[in-house]
Design a protein that fits this description.
Elements: H1 6-30, H2 36-51, E1 55-61, E2 67-74, H3 78-81, E3 85-87, H4 93-100, E4 104-106, H5 118-123, E5 127-135, E6 138-147, H6 155-186, H7 196-213, E7 217-224, H8 227-234, H9 236-253, E8 259-262, E9 267-273, H10 277-298, E10 309-316, H11 323-339, E11 345-347
Parallel strand pairs: 10-11
Antiparallel strand pairs: 1-2, 1-6, 2-3, 4-5, 5-6, 7-9, 7-10, 8-9
């Protein structure tokens, strides 16, 4: 048996010691937050630092495990990151990495027989390490670390990345659970719209932002007409389907930046940032028309009855400049629409 050269042995021990110290430091950073975006950034920055590589990304699996979506990237061009979602092709390299569940390294992509990603080659990626992220037996994503020159990776480096991957997976799982818990705390369980408590916080936040930057915003209040009589006639299960349908229509009709809240039993309120009166009225009319045309179809047992809403629209600072003032105006206008025939939109002229 040939003895190792003392210098070589010392070098290996020092590398292992450095790897252990790195693991401790990385673990402290990776588990230091429950915010999902911050956790992702901590994981990627730590991995790039461990391998001293200039680029990387993290992609997370969908619930079915059929595709990956890039959630974060550093050091890569917009042309590369614009392909944010891709399918996991059976037999492909991504599927093999996930199936093996082990750290996978390519030291030179141009000489590799298993690597044929044209986008990565066009990006100039010459070496990479891929770390599957798993929680128990479930794959949740892949951590990629990239370089633009060929690299050699030691066993210690790859072992360190495997341990980092374990910490990263646990931290991601905790962050996702935390995000889900927060979501449940601020959403209505039936419709998926934000709840009344979250509305009050959001309105305070938007008031502060609008005052600080001299912006306008709109509140639109919707109340389903004759909903109590509808429930008495068809039953609460059908009424619940109507509530869900109205919430879905509002989400689908309004902008992504607009927030939808279930304000009360059959009342919804929408908060539209950076919106003036003309835009708000146009949005309110689109919602009113779609609800009248489509909401009853979702309630299969609703017969020939039509679902309509009475709508009030108020704009900051045009109509009021305080929390209570805006709510009073928009509520009064909604009830005015009811008194004047229902299925109408009212605003201060």
């Amino acid at each position: 048996m040939t003895e190792k050269d003392p210098t070589e042995h010392r070098s290996e021990v020092e590398e292992e010691l450095h790897g252990l110290k790195t693991i401790v430091n990385v673990a402290q950073v990776v588990v230091s937050s429950l915010d999902l975006d911050e956790v992702l950034d901590n994981i990627l920055v730590s991995a790039m630092a461990v391998l001293e590589m200039p680029a990387g990304s993290i992609a997370l699996c969908d619930d079915a495990g059929a595709s990956l979506t890039m959630k974060l990237a550093h050091g890569l061009s917009p042309a590369f990151t614009s392909r944010s979602t891709w399918q996991i092709r059976p037999g492909g390299l991504t599927a093999r990495i996930l199936d093996r569940g082990e750290v996978f390294a390519i030291e030179d992509t141009e000489r590799s027989e298993v690597f044929s990603n044209p986008l990565a080659l066009a990006e100039g990626i010459r070496s990479l390490v891929a770390v599957p992220l798993r929680v128990q037996e479930k794959v949740i994503g892949i951590l990629y670390v990239d370089d633009f020159v060929p690299r050699r990776f030691s066993g210690v480096q790859l072992e360190t990345m495997a341990i980092l991957g374990s910490f990263a997976s646990m931290s991601l799982d905790n962050a996702r659970l935390h995000a889900r818990t927060l979501e449940l705390a601020c959403t209505d369980g039936l419709t998926g719209a934000f709840n009344h408590r979250h509305f009050k916080k959001s309105l305070v936040d938007e008031l502060g932002r609008a005052r600080r930057y001299d912006l306008s915003f709109a509140l639109i209040m919707f109340d389903i007409d004759d909903f109590k009589a509808f429930n008495d006639r068809y039953g609460h299960p059908v009424g619940d389907r109507v509530l869900v349908a109205v919430a879905d229509i509002l989400r689908d009709t309004l902008r992504d930046c607009d927030q939808i809240f279930r304000y009360g039993g059959e009342e919804f309120i929408a908060l539209l940032p950076e919106t003036g009166i003309e835009q708000a009225l146009a949005a309110a009319e689109r919602c009113r028309e779609r609800i009248a045309d489509e909401a009853a179809d979702a309630a299969i047992d609703a017969g020939q009855d039509r679902i309509t809403v009475s709508v009030g629209v108020a704009v900051f600072p045009r109509d009021a400049e305080t929390f209570d003032g805006l709510l009073k105006v928009v509520d009064d206008l909604m009830y005015l629409a009811k008194r004047r025939g229902k299925n109408k939109v009212h605003h201060l002229s």
